[in-house]
Write a structure and sequence with these properties.
Number of strands: 3
Radius of gyration: 16 Å
Number of helices: 5
Oligomer: single chain
Helix content: 40-55%
Strand content: 5-15%
Largest sheet: 3 strands, mixed
Structural class: mainly alpha
Number of domains: 1
Amino acid sequence: MAVTCPDSVHLPPCDRIVIVFNRCFADPAGFNTRLCGGFPEPYYRPAEGEQDYHRVEFTRDYPASALHEAAHWCVAGEARRRLPDYGYWYAPDGRSAEQQAEFERVEVVPQALEWIFACACSLRFRVSADNLESGLGPSVGFKRAIWQQVQTFCQRGVNARAETFARALAAEFGRPDPLDPALYQLTDLS
C-alpha cells in the first residue's frame, strides 16, 4: 500500500495521480509503465526498446483524463499492452448512433474503473459519451451499465493492477476503501 508523501498533498490532484501511478507501475522489473500528462490527445505508447518504458499519455493536466487512461491500461491485457493505443477501435467525435452504441458497449468497464479511481481521489466522476459533435450524450442505459459494473467490481473485486492503483490513490488522498459499493449511487450519474 502506498503511503502519502507529505509534500505531495500540496500538489494539484493530477500531479498526485501521476506520482501514485508511477510509484505503483514504473519499476522496470515490473510493468515498466509511466503515466504522462501534457498531451493534446490521450494515447498509449508501448516501449520501443529495452531502455524505453511504456507510456500512458493523457490530455493536458486533466485529472479525469489521467484516471480514464489509467483505467484503459488496467483493462488491457498483456498482448494489448504491446500494441500502440492497445490496438483498440476508436471513431472520433461525430459518431453515428450505431458507432455510439458500440462506443458505449466497450466503455462500460473502463468508465466503471475510472469512477472507482475518481472516488479514491475524492474527485467527481462524469460519464463520458465522447461525442459532443453529434449531440449524443450518455444514454440512460450506459449510465446504468457503468453503475452495475462498479457494483460488480465492488462485490467480486477488480484485477490486481486496478486494485493496486485504487488502493494507492485512496491512501494518497486519505479516502475510505474505494471498493465499498455504498460509495456509488446511480443517481450520482444524472
